[in-house]
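Table S2 (continued). Query chain:
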Amino acid sequence: MIHDFIVVWGERGLLLSGLANTVILSVLAAVVALVLGALLSTLLMRPARGVALAARLAVDALRCTPFLLFAYIVYYGLPSIGLRLDNWSAGLAALALYHSAYMAEILRGAWAAQPRAGIEAGLAFGYTGLALLRRIVLPPLLLSAGPVVGNQVIQIIKDSAFLTIIALPELTHAASSIQSRHYVPFAAFVAAVLLYWALCLVVEAGVAGVGRMAEARR
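Corresponding output:
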C-alpha cells in the first residue's frame, strides 16, 4: 500500500496539473454561472408573466436534467446542429450553463426574502434596471446568500469530475490516468479525494469570510 502512494507521489506533476485545470475550470464556471444566474433571477422576478414563465421553464429544465447527461448533450449533441466545441470549451459551457439555473434559484429566493425598503430607496434615488441590480440589489443579496452560493461552488467542483468522460484533463482524469498506467486505484483516487477536499476547504474559508463581512455590515 505504501508503495502505491509512492507511485502516486512520483506522478504528482500529473495530479497537480489536473488540480490546476480543475481550479481554473471551477472558478471560471462559478463566475459565469453567478453572472448568468443573477440575470436569470431578474427575469424570474419580472412582473411580466410571460418573461417570468419562460425563465422558470428554462431554470426547471436545467435543474431536472442530470449533469452528466447535459455534458453529453453539449459535447456530443451540439455538433449535430453545427456547433462544435473542444473539450475545454464544452466542459466550461456545460458547468456554467447548468449551474446558472441553481444560482438563479438561490438568488431569486434571497431576493424574495430581502426587505423592500432598500429597493424602494434606490428607486427613489433614480436607480433603475442594471444600475439598480448592481448597486442596490446584488450587494446585500450576495452577502445573505453567501453560504448557499458557496455550497453551489462546491457542487461545481464536484461536478467537474464528470468531465473526465469528455477527456478534459482535470483532477479525476489525472487520477484515472495514473491508476490505468500503474494499477494503483486506491492510492490514486484517495489522493484525488484529498485534493478535492482541500479545494472545498478553501471555498468554505471564503464563505466564512463573506459571513464575517455580512455580520460587520449589520
